[in-house]
């Protein structure tokens, strides 16, 4: 398939609101510091909460969509709204599609409605399952906000959702059905998701510590990232993508990372690259014993000692939004001038798990050599063994 | 872009207690899964058997407006009652649960996607199918499934209840039931298309030669 251009980015997550703030905190290595009012099995539940004060309020004509998830999505959209408007004027509204990824969509609104009823307050009059919680509501919101009339849908495969959404968006461009696609993802924190992961004994009682010998599990996060994807225009390109399924377990990855390896190799093949031509890998790196064990094996087999990091100690695991947010972090790093080239650091306690094969973790301040093009791989692995890898580069390459 | 429908199958429950036997699903998995997944897999394995295609040889595209909404309802009910959440139910509450079960049961290590788009879910699924098949010769199993939306989430629900599965090929097939073309046109509004309408059209050879559905920048056009 063709390489496609990522023209503009809107982002909000624990690292901040907007490209400049997020990039600054990312490269400085700003770890999670907030907790939720929930005592998980291991201790305090650290979370990657977005800067709620910075979230945009939905205008009155879009109020039926109002929930935390959609405010995250709308906040990201406003950052690219001008680019979208220009694109709509250029190509026509019916030529601009919307493809998003999400795991829980507006579950936060449904949870609040259930709590209100249970405590005797009654269901809020503003609660609307179809506009706020059902996946289609996210598409309807952005269509209304941007006057977008092209095809639109949400990909929902848990933690690989928005990575797959970018692949689907690329597919619409290749079909010739769209000239541009607003694509990305969003997911919001809510109690039920945190309690569910705690029921699986997956939540850490400290800031997540990927690939550490002491790692306990994940921290949840929230956020949204939206790209305006077109056939050309830069500054960053999606040049390859790979997917696979583990066929191993419904909620645990294949222990040897065979599925993860297959997705990475498929992405390399799609981009017509050899492994040594990737200069940085953004790990899925959730900090759970099983994920990190299998991922270290897979990365070691495919890439050896490529610079890599998990950015989840800085964002939390944003579930369905993770693929898009981590692609966005790669985008921000790839957009640095040639003289800078700082890499996203891997924050952990420094005690690498001796049971894992060695991988080359980035530290704060690490810089990349002057590769041109500069190419990254971003990985996302999900429940049900759903695996996805994206190749991103700072130049369009012939494929 | 032209793709071909090789086989189709469906499961529509006849009453609130009706659920498919789903004999292809391993007993341990069958015990754990909910109605939406069970219906989806019943339709999937039926269509694969009709076509004589191995379950591990296809990519799968699953469509659902509401996903595992009954499992989610159970979790929310437990949560407000301050009861512990079932880890199995939580694992089964993700939107793409059916493709996880299909992959595990069939040892299918290929591509699986799940998408949702409100009333346009079914139509958008065929757009995505065209995109998936344009550069990949692997047959595509497309399955749409929704279970009844619990009334607590709201009234006026229009989602069809049941599962409809289609085996799609990117190459012409002698025994194809129909072809599907994606015509790129000017300003076609995105339309809602229900699986029952496609099934009715496929099962009525005396009906119209084509069935069309607008999808934004173009239309889907099925032809016998």
Report on the architecture of this protein.
The complex is a heterodimer of chains A (399) and B (224). Chain A is an alpha/beta fold. Chain A has helices spanning 19-28, 68-91, 107-118, 129-133, 136-146, 161-175, 191-199, 258-270, 289-303, 312-315, 322-334, and strands spanning 4-13, 16-17, 34-40, 43-48, 96-101, 152-155, 180-187, 220-221, 223-230, 236-245, 280-282, 307-309, 360-361, 375-382, 386-393. Chain A contains eleven helices and 15 strands. The radius of gyration of chain A is 20 Å and the shape is globular. Chain A starts with a strand and ends in a 6-residue tail after the last strand. The mean pLDDT of chain A is 96. Helices cover 32% and strands 26% of the residues of chain B. The two termini of chain B are 16 Å apart. The mean pLDDT of chain B is 94. The chains are: A alpha/beta (399), B alpha+beta (224). Chains A and B meet through helix 3, helix 4, helix 5, strand 6 and helix 6 of A and helix 3, helix 4, helix 5, strand 3 and helix 6 of B.
Give the overall pLDDT of chain B as a whole number. Answer: 94
Low-confidence stretches of chain A: none
Distance between the termini of chain B: 16 Å
Strand content of chain A: 15-25%
Sheet with most strands: strand arrangement of chain B: 3-2-4-5-1-6-8-7
Query: Would you tell me the structural class of the helices and strands of chain A?
Result: alpha/beta
How many whole angstroms does the radius of gyration of chain A measure?
A: 20 Å
> Which consecutive residue ranges of chain B, at least 5 long each, have pLDDT under 50?
none
Q: What's the multimeric state?
A: heterodimer
Largest interface: A-B, 67 and 65 residues
Shape category of chain A:
globular
What does the main sheet of chain A amount to?
A: 12 strands, mixed
Bin the helical content of chain A: 25-40%
Main beta sheet of chain B, described? Answer: 8 strands, mixed
Alpha carbon gyration radius of chain B = 18 Å
Average residue-wise pLDDT of chain A: 96
DSSP summary: helix tally of chain A: 11
Proportion in β-strands of chain B: 25-35%
Order of helices and strands of chain B: EHHEHHHEHEEEHEE
Q: Compute the separation of the termini of chain A in Å.
A: 8 Å
Give the helix proportion of chain B (percent range). Answer: 25-40%
